[in-house]
């Protein structure tokens, strides 16, 4: 604060501005080097030196002023400092005196201290000796305890005790002899323990292998029980649906009553394994024990996978598969409960080995089997094995694939077995309508397969329109469906309805239809047999819908999905074709029999001179036969088949008569022969009309009566009986009266028509006789037909 007035004084005393600037720089502590450098570079250092001197003088003046101002205070401080020196000298003297006194007193105490330190040294040595003795005693006590554990077989406690000795005592045992003895015995004891543990574990390995079959059988039995409960529930559900009882709501929770508790049921002791692994871990050799376990279990698995050829596979497959199931259930429990003892990759490797062997064994054994029942038994147990091991996380796809590959083999065996049964059922059939006397028999043979023709329960005794072959075959097909479902279920494909449908068509087409066709084509078949076979085929065709619904129910497919017309079986169309073949065979038999009765060239005098007044006797036999055929057909065959039989027989009679006129065996005939055939034809026409109306066919086929199929022969007889046969060439008359007659046929027949008896001199006797108008007309027709042709 006093510097500013001084600077003002300097300025006021005539200081130049340059002196003031230099003083300011020096006062602020700034670097004056640049000024000095500049002054010397300019060659004028004198002004700068002068200025510096002025500044120095100013500073000296300031210092003098400052000293003058604080002089008194400085003097006082010097006086005080001198007083402090005097006090310090006094204190020094006091300290010397006190030090002398202290040394005199401490000499005695120093002697006591040395004695105390010597006592402390003795005490320390004694304490060390006691401590060392305690260590030795404790170590020996632990050794004794360890020996006791080893003797009692408590190896874990023995190892823990040795671990305590090694970790806490071995390095601090003061007695070298004792320490060396303990060090030598510890490895010996550990080796002994390891051998004993391995021995016990080996016994456990043998025990667990012998128990694997029981473990596997128990586990598979639990799965089988659960599957059986499920199948029973589904069966009750199906019956409820069939009876429309609405019982589904009560059945939906049946399976939830009991839970599968396999872990609690499958009790087997893994304690020896845990103990052995733990002991080897303590011994520091867990890897060696893991390798020992894995190699021994691998050997056991290889042995288990070897099948016995001393007995048939069908008798040993359950033992074989149960042993494998038990083996891998044990491995699953080990991997889940033993920590990192067993690696998942190791178990996976063993499983891949096992599943490859199982697949190979199954393929070989299936190829040798010749019974579908045996194949199905093995398949069922294999699927139970797969379901059991799938619960434990094992991949069983290859096993199910092997079963799927044997699917065709099984169905071939099943098909062949059913073929024999169907052949037996058809060959032993009586071809007589089945007589049912009890309601239970009606339910078993008719309602069970939806073969009823009416929803109303009939009165008993009831005569079914089919023979006993139909329900017998239906039962065989139903058993085939059940056998097929049993094999296809629980396999690779959960939705196997399409596969089942293919096999169902196969048995219906390749077996049932072929056997029926063979029976139809048998020349020894009679009318009644052919008629009954045709009726049976109609009902088998109807049963196809039942077979499809039954298959859908067993597969869990809604019935409505198979009730659509486009969803029907292909076999239904094939059976319909076979039914037509049966109708054709029936007609062939009927027609053959009619031909036997109607031996027209033999039964008719084609050039008789007498005018007949009644039909020929053979016609009575024909009518009786037709009456029998139509009556039987009306009882057995459906309406359309009845109509076909009637039409076929009537049409055959018509064709037979026309064919006889055209036959080369008939060289000529006269009007009397035509009149006789006309009488026969009227009998057939009357029969046709009567049967057409009495059977009720007139209400169904209004435009196609039986008589309409006699129109050709009727028009031919009318033409031959006409007084003006030449009208045949009149288009209008021909279209109205003779539209079914063929020109060539008429020409051939008319050439044979001779209206005079064939006497020896017949032609000469009549040469000059006036031709009748009818003969002239017939001759004109013959002439015009020749011209037309």
From TrEMBL:
Top-level taxon of origin: Eukaryota
InterPro entries associated with the record: EXOC6/Sec15 (IPR007225), EXOC6/Sec15_C (IPR046361), EXOC6/Sec15_C_dom1 (IPR042045), EXOC6_Sec15_N (IPR048359), EXOC6PINT-1/Sec15/Tip20_C_dom2 (IPR042044)
Main location: cytoplasm
Domain Exocyst complex subunit EXOC6/Sec15 C-terminal: 400-752
One GO cellular component term: cytosol
A Pfam family assignment: Sec15_C
GO biological process, one term: intracellular protein transport
Keywords carried by this UniProt record: Coiled coil, Cytoplasm, Exocytosis, Transport
Exocyst complex component EXOC6/Sec15 N-terminal domain ranges (all copies): 51-220
Compartments, record wording: Cytoplasm, Cytosol
Protein family per UniProt: Belongs to the SEC15 family.
Known function: Component of the exocyst complex involved in the docking of exocytic vesicles with fusion sites on the plasma membrane during regulated or polarized secretion. Involved in polarized cell growth and organ morphogenesis. During cytokinesis, involved in cell plate initiation, cell plate maturation and formation of new primary cell wall.
Family annotation (PANTHER family): EXOCYST COMPLEX COMPONENT 6, SEC15
Protein name, entry field: Exocyst complex component
Annotated source species: Brassica carinata (Ethiopian mustard)
């Amino acid at each position: 604060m006093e510097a500013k007035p001084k600077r003002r004084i300097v300025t006021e005393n005539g200081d130049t501005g340059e002196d003031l600037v230099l003083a300011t720089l020096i006062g602020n502590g700034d670097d004056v080097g640049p000024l000095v450098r500049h002054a010397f570079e300019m060659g004028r250092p004198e002004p700068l030196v002068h200025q510096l001197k002025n500044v120095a003088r100013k500073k000296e003046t300031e210092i003098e002023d400052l000293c003058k101002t604080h002089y008194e205070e400085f003097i006082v401080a010097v006086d005080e400092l001198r007083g402090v020196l005097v006090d310090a000298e006094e204190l020094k003297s006091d300290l010397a005196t006190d030090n002398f006194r202290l040394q005199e007193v401490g000499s005695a105490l120093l002697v006591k201290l040395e004695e105390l330190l010597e006592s402390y040294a003795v005490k320390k040595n004694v304490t060390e000796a006691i401590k060392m003795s305690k260590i030795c005693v404790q170590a020996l006590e632990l050794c004794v305890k360890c020996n006791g554990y080893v003797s009692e077989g408590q190896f874990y406690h023995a190892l823990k005790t040795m671990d305590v000795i090694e970790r806490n005592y071995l390095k601090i045992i003061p007695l070298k002899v004792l320490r060396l003895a303990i060090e030598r015995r510890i490895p010996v004891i550990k080796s002994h323990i390891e051998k004993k543990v391995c021995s016990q574990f080996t016994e456990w390995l043998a025990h667990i292998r012998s128990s694997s079959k029981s473990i596997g059988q128990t586990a598979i039995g639990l799965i089988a029980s659960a599957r059986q409960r499920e199948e029973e529930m589904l069966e009750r559900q199906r019956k409820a649906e069939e009876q429309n009882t609405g019982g589904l709501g009560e059945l939906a929770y049946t399976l939830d009553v009991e839970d599968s508790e396999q872990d609690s049921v499958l009790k087997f002791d893994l304690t020896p394994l845990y103990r052995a692994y733990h002991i080897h871990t303590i011994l520091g050799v867990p890897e060696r024990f893991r390798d020992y376990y894995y190699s021994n279990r691998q050997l056991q698995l290889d042995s288990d996978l070897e099948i016995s050829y001393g007995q048939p596979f069908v008798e040993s497959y359950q033992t074989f598969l149960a042993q494998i199931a038990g083996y891998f259930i044990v491995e699953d429990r080990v991997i889940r409960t033993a920590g990192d003892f067993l690696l998942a990759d190791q178990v996976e490797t063993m499983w891949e080995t096992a599943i490859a062997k199982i697949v190979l064994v199954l393929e070989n054994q299936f190829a040798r089997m010749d019974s579908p029942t045996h194949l199905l038994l093995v398949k069922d147990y294999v699927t139970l094995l797969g379901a059991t091991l799938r619960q434990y996380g094992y991949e069983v796809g290859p096993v199910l694939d092997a079963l799927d590959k044997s699917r065709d083999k099984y169905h071939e065996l099943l098909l062949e077995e059913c073929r024999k049964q169907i052949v037996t059922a058809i060959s032993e059939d009586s071809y007589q309508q089945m007589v049912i006397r009890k309601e239970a028999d009606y339910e078993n043979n008719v309602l069970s397969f939806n073969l009823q023709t009416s929803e109303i329960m009939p009165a008993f005794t009831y005569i079914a329109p089919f023979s006993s072959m139909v329900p017998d075959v239906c039962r065989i097909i139903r058993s085939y469906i059940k056998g097929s479902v049993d094999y296809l279920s629980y396999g690779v494909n959960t939705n196997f309805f399409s596969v089942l449908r293919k096999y169902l068509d196969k048995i219906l087409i390749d077996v049932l239809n072929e056997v029926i066709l063979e029976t139809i084509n048998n020349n020894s078949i009679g009318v009644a047999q052919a008629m009954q076979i045709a009726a049976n085929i109609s009902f088998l065709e109807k049963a196809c819908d039942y077979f499809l619904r039954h298959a859908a129910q067993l597969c869990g497919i809604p019935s409505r999905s198979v009730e659509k017309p486009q969803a029907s079986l292909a076999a239904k169309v094939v059976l319909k074709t076979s039914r037509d073949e049966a109708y054709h065979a029936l007609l062939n038999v009927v027609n053959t029999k009619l031909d036997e009765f109607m031996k027209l060239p033999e039964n008719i005098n084609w050039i008789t001179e007498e005018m007949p007044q009644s039909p020929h006797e053979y016609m009575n036999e024909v009518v009786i036969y037709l009456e029998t055929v139509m009556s039987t057909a009306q009882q057995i065959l459906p309406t359309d088949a009845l109509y076909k039989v009637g039409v076929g027989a009537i049409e055959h009679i018509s064709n037979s008569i026309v064919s006889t006129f055209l036959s080369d065996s008939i060289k000529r005939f006269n009007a009397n022969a035509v009149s006789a055939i006309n009488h026969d034809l009227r009998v057939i026409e009357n029969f046709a009309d009567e049967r057409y109306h009495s059977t009720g066919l007139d209400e169904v086929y209004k435009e196609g009566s039986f008589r309409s199929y006699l129109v050709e022969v009727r028009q031919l007889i009318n033409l031959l009986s006409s007084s003006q046969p030449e009208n045949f060439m009149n288009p209008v008359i021909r279209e109205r009266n003779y539209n079914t007659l063929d020109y060539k046929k008429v020409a051939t027949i008319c050439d044979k028509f001779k209206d005079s008896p064939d006497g020896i001199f017949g032609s000469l006797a009549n040469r000059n006789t006036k031709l009748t108008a009818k003969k002239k007309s017939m001759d004109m027709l013959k002439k015009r037909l020749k011209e037309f042709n």
